[in-house]
Batch of 3 targets.
Target 1
Amino acid sequence: MTYDLRDTIFASVADCLYVADVRVTTAGVICGVERATQKARDLDCEILQAAADGDDVDVETPILSMRGSAKAIAMAEDCVPGAIAKPSGISRAMRRAQQLAGNRVRVVSGAAKKMPEEIKEQIRRAVHRGGGSGRISNEPFLYLDKNYVRIFGSVRKTLEAVAPMQGYVRAIQLRGLVEDIAAETRSALALGAEILMVDSGRLEDLDLVSQLVRDAGRRDRTTIAFAGDIAMEDIPGVAAHDVDILDIGRAILDAPIVDIKFDVRTG
């Protein structure tokens, strides 16, 4: 058994129970409380009350309260705030991004796939609890990115390869790496792709794709998405263009943590 210094430190109060409250220092949406609650339970703490992921909270009301031994409470302080701080920051950034984009444009964040496997689900949950999604479509879909296009040699050949696969929305990434953006767009329209993802980060490419879609009489049947290191402050300007979806990665996942207070009650 590994020796824990806390056993010695708390020896004189080993039979006592203590209550600790967890609060945020800034009001807003939270995420990670359910995971934090499980961590506290794993330490044999009794949960007195807990907010839910996705709740809007203030700075006065505890988002989590627990009762346990001095050692358990001290151990909880080492892990509970960390389960909440970063996910809550991501949720708040996601909500802010959607507010900046307005009601017409949907914001998604698919960048969780670039994160370590161990935290992907936490990030996806944080995005969802902030009102967003990691999926470009709510229907079953095929996302055909630049490397699919490179493998097959063109947008046309890529879409032809998946043509027999029925029941999927086809989302094709347009970057102008194999062909120019205009040629890629025309091929995507000719093969009936439902979602065109302009992933170059260049607004002139977005405007060109939009114009080609309208010229083809396909605007009402084609979803136009845009990505490319979009900063939070750029969202309103980008959303003013003819676009349906913004895929925002780093600006959401790099959100600062929400400061968490963990306080043992006195008296």
Target 2
Amino acid sequence: MALIMPVEDGDRYTTNPTIWVGVAPDTLTAAVAFEVTKDIRAFLDGLNVTNIDIAYRETLPKSSPGHGPALFPIIEDGEPLKEVIENVSVALSLPISGLKTTMQCTMGPYFHVGNRLLAVTARHNVFRPEASNAEYRYNASRPKKDVVLMGNPAFTNYLVSIQAHIGTLLETVESINRKINTLTIRVRDGVNIPESQIKLDENVAELGKIRTKIDVFKAFYVDIKKGWSKIKRRVIGYVVWAPPIGVGVAPHQYTRDLCVVELYKDRFMHLIGNVLSLGPEYTSFKLKGLLHECDNVPSGFKYPEDGLLRLQGILTAEQVKNPETKNLQGNPFRRVLKRGFTTNTTVGTVTRYMSFVRKYFPTGNLESIELPIIPHENETGTFSKGGDSGSTIVSPHGEFVSLLTGGTNKGTGGSDITYSTMFEWVWELVLAEFPDANLYFENMAAFLAAPA
């Protein structure tokens, strides 16, 4: 097939190179332009540069729109949006996805290197399955591997969940209105006063609170839909380093599934550090009951008043082997928590032993050491499901325990056993690549204000 060639019609003209001078609208007079042009001409003559046109145009510089809206601050228990804010707040366990991948997953802990803000997740979360397993380092000459807050399916479901909350609140309004009508009739007819009046006042007050909450939810929904719907408005960072996924990695023979993401600081202006929201799923009484079951060996867990567990310290493999707590049968064990994209906050159990995992492939078998977490015996659900990979698993004291990498099941919707890699070993890898990495932020305001 012959090449398609462009066809020109008419004569081609080539103009002189032009120096464009931008000026604010309605600020330049002909006299001033003439004087400025003479100065520019004199400068060009000194360089022996000729045949240059000089032109003026009215224009206003526009500031860069940045990388998108900042994530929301973490809110405490009891706030109206507590049930829905987690997906777009700066608390740990953000729901993430690769811009060009379909897997939905969870982001792990934050850390900083100087003034750069970074975070950890599992490599398989943001790399395509068919992609090369070679070590990846960001190269400024190549396109970035962008990481987004919620892939499109997850974001659509998120909007639906907000609408569902609004729908539930509207149903509550209808129910309260019926009670108010009934109580109003009783008060009018003098039935069971003053009890009817007290209940009427209580329901009227509750109705006002619910209507205020509906207004807050509706405004939040409009804000999220308008400002976050385009996926490029949800880009929060990009991959800067990912070692190859490996099993049986020396010296601990563990699974290496790690990825480091550099985050855009302007999207994390409300960051307060590595803080795990315990979420609205458990009351403080319920969570204490799951973590504290043996009277003679207390768990040491104290439910934070704001529902936010501050993380500090890294649990070692040796500490995992020698837990200080015991179950009702007197056997040593350790409770752990995590918050993930799919299952939110869950409580599980770590035994004293690592798990030896063998995976079978046509080309041979692969073996590795994992830290297993089993579901809590008093909970009906599982500790994790698909989408929770990358979650930070922590102790009730707020220590980093492990990074969630996968699980196994018998065909159920979740994992009978959740597999993870000791965070102690993950952090060794991070420090080898980023020697100045630090999980703790001493002066957050100064850090966020400093350019990366």
Target 3
Amino acid sequence: MLECPGPATVVFDKALTEYNFGPEHPMSPIRVDLTMRLAEQLGVLERLTVVPAPIATEDLIATVHDPALIESVTRAGTIPGYTDLSRGLGTDDDPVFEGMHHAAAHVVGASVEAFRQVHSGAALHSANIAGGLHHAMPGSASGFCIYNDIAVGIQWLLDQGVERVAYVDVDVHHGDGVERIFWNDPRVLTISLHETGQMLFPGTGFPHDLGGADAKGSAVNVALPPGTADAGWLRAFHAVVPPLLREFRPHILVTQHGCDSHMEDPLAHFMLSVDGQRAAYLALHELAHEVADGRWVALGGGGYAIVDVVPR
């Protein structure tokens, strides 16, 4: 196993737990708090530098999101009873809550800071465990995701002149928002391993989905059946991810680590163990060093076995 030869950071602020859809919602913010507590108890944080999480400006968010969405999210967080179903706001997946824009902008700001840490050379690896909101679309919230922090971060890198960014998504759900936003951009390779859309939200991410006319082959989807366990999942991972990353040679590797592929997750149907998930994370770490000189941004994602799985 590779040890990190350079500095590593985690971007965090307790205020990130204000991204909270309410006590009945599956995506409880306590999962972020428990993860940081466990990391501290295990001594993980002793090997990292914790850096503050800034709040993203509206201009930064607008690099990938429609201003009308930002305006509607802001209104949703300040007007009691406000809904905008055309923007995905007020649904069962994305109920509105007070301070919605501020909370979502904080997640975006934290992720972009992780991107900045790595791009600037301040850190070789950087993580935002509260990030990974991969379903948000340019004009609408979706699937527990208000703004797409991943896409904002990748776009920020492109705006800094980075020529190639690779994104690997191992959440059990297809990373549809990130794929959609960069569908026609050959500078961004998106790879998603997920449960087939025939059985699970968002119902997309099939092998024939390969990218737009100007970026054929830049989107890669590995759609697997319910019941997939460690052996089959890791076989698919190793067959697809390493050769594509070696061919693409990204400047930075970006990964989304939703842990809802675990066998105990209540919202999906994979049968992975923590050991199986960890094996993929270790492989991604090694690949970051092999293909991107170690430059790696790691983000959180889904995971709804809040106590028994997510913090681990």
